[in-house]
Specification:
Chains A, B: This is LacI family DNA-binding transcriptional regulator. 2 copies of one chain form a homodimer. The first copy, chain A, has 359 residues and is an alpha/beta fold. The first copy, chain A, has 12 helices and 12 strands. In chain A, the strands form 3 sheets. Chain A has a 6-stranded parallel sheet, with helices on both faces. Chain A is elongated.
DNA sequence: TTGTATGCGTTATCAA
DNA sequence: TTGATAACGCATACAA
């Protein structure tokens, strides 16, 4: 059974059916120029009856804009990205833009050469689809050493359409950057734990070679060195997922003795809490776990996670607005997200636990 | 500072620069027809140097296909949908299709009239953008009484492009449906709890008026009535989120005495577990909580949630493949997801707790 | 107030 | 093997 879909109705047919020229139909479509009430009503009637909708693609060919934005990210299943997508979608919709979503991790292609690199491929797709602007979140651009081929492609794309990147600024990249406060969040959580009296503090999660992670680690080390005898065995980097907290915490505790751990985010924290539970240790009684990056739902965990609200979603709004400004030829503002907040919950315990300095 | 983006390079300019006609350039672009090695190399050189990429929108105007699929869903922050998006993205990418994402809840518009209805609007957008096919997940179509205006729009869209809906089949809708096993999952979890010996079992979460929820509830009631003295006070419907489990469990226990609860999904289950914890009750010792729909990560909760793996993601793959089949004029297969599996974890306890019939 | 003609970037038909 | 040219659906400049 071969399915034959009905031929799309065009402005020409509306023109014929209504006895007006295509120009006149176009005029009522765009509410531009003068059209007699008589003709207008006839045309509107036909449009209604035929369920006609002008083709955006034909329109785009003429107008040079597609009213479409692209969002590129490595992993839609990551809560950090999901919040951003939601916000970007919401704001874009408000401005009349539709979203194209590209999940670069989903390709699973080996990164053998530039052509097969999913991120480079994503940029090519963007160019072909002629979106009006693009938001890029994380991925290659987050690396300490950004692949030069990727960077080149990115800069070329940016010559054609405005590209906003949600990440820490990269020197030789011409795109617009929207970033989070770099060290504030980490400082807040580490100082909280130090203030509670803990002195054997570890760092868990995050990928080596990723700038945010390296920067957070540096800030962590700076602070911890200030107040404790720092031991670099108290650091374990792996990745950002639950399993990394789960597996990592055990390794970390085998390496060194700790009574507090800062996890790179709530997922890693949850993974760690779970493993500790299985090992017969209670959080926060036996060991406290804080997180440097709040994810949704972690207030429902047992224990709930003491963490940092980085106001990630505000980045999404800012990103889209920078794009819109760019369309209008307005200068972009130097953009940073809202100031991070410490969110005190259960996983680091309460004041009462901290009357004595915790060795 | 007004940003002037560089004029897009077109096939014409490649033609000029390479000294060949646009036809010839088009031929090397599409590897169609014969082109002398000499010309081909000249053209390829220019393409490389100029970084030229053909405009998909101009191509689409001619070819009548955009190589784009639309995905419409109510709420991207819902883990059930995220898993599907991920799968749909992955499979689509494999077939060379890009995704447009429409999150109907994000508009927040009041559903006062059909024109402002975000879901109807989404269908209009799809039509305008001339995507090749659409996947619709949940939303209005899930309601017991589907809005007639919406249904009409949906059927009209389906005349123009293939539309796959991931939901239980609706009688007067002509689209292709891809569905989950209706009652199997609920049966598995209820029978598990009954088998453990519990006899005072409640039902928590899900929205009244939504078909999946009503069907699951019906199945729940059927089974529970078979083995226990059923009391309709043991049912509380509200919604699908954490807060619904959190708030709902308390109300439910105020209504009636229970020693087991089936939650509509893992999020609701987690919300309930958390509230019970705060109320000083232990899960599973004081009360057991099972879930009818597995979400990611619930194996890390404390306690981990005993639940049903509905293999939701397989629906995403099936949906895209139905679309592709449709493009090729192949008949669609009656599609159901994989058979659900009971996932025994901690929240319903273990065998040892069930030696005696639990009143 | 309305209609004709042209162009947008590409592909395909048809000659050459 | 190659190059004009028409066509895709729409918007606009220009005429009428």
């Amino acid at each position: 059974m071969l399915i034959t879909k009905k031929h799309d109705i065009t402005i020409k047919e509306i023109s014929k059916l209504s006895g007006a020229s295509t120009s006149t139909v176009s005029r009522v479509l765009n509410e531009s120029g003068y059209v007699s009430t008589e003709k207008r009503q006839a045309i509107e009637k036909v449009i209604r009856e035929t369920n006609y909708r002008p083709s955006m693609i034909a329109r785009s060919l003429h107008s040079k804009q597609t009213k479409t934005l692209a969002v590129v990210l490595p992993d839609v299943s990551n809560p950090y990205f999901i919040g951003l997508i939601e916000e970007i979608e919401h704001v874009s919709e408000g401005y009349g833009y539709t979203l194209i979503l590209i999940n670069t991790m989903s390709t699973g292609a080996d990164k053998m050469n530039a052509v097969d690199d999913p991120e480079v491929k994503a940029l090519h797709t963007i160019q072909e689809k002629h979106v009006d602007g693009a938001v890029i979140i994380g991925g290659e651009i987050d690396h300490v050493n950004v692949d030069s081929q990727y960077l080149k492609t990115l800069n070329e794309l940016n010559k054609q359409i405005p590209v906003v990147i949600i990440a820490q600024k990269v020197e030789n990249c011409d795109c617009i950057f929207v970033q989070r406060h770099i060290n504030t969040g980490m400082r807040l959580i580490v100082q909280h734990i130090l203030s509670l009296g803990y002195r054997k503090i570890g760092f868990l999660g995050g990928k080596p070679g990723v700038r945010v992670t390296e920067q957070r680690l540096a800030e962590f080390e700076k602070l911890v060195k200030m107040y404790t005898d720092y031991d670099d065995k108290s650091v374990l980097l792996n990745d950002y997922y639950l399993k990394d907290g789960y597996q990592g915490i055990e390794k970390l505790l085998n390496q060194t003795d700790l009574n507090a751990v800062v996890a790179i985010n709530d997922r890693v924290a949850l993974g760690a809490v779970r493993r500790l539970h299985e090992m017969g240790m209670n959080v926060p009684k036996d060991i406290v776990i804080g997180s440097a990056d709040q994810f949704p739902d972690s207030d429902y965990y047992i224990p709930s996670i003491t963490t940092i609200n980085q106001h990630n979603n505000s980045l999404g709004k800012i990103a889209v607005e920078q794009l819109i400004r760019s369309f209008n030829g307005q200068p972009f503002l130097t953009a940073e997200s809202e100031f991070p907040d410490l969110v005190i919950r259960e996983s680091c315990g309460e004041k009462k636990y901290s009357n004595v300095l915790k060795k």
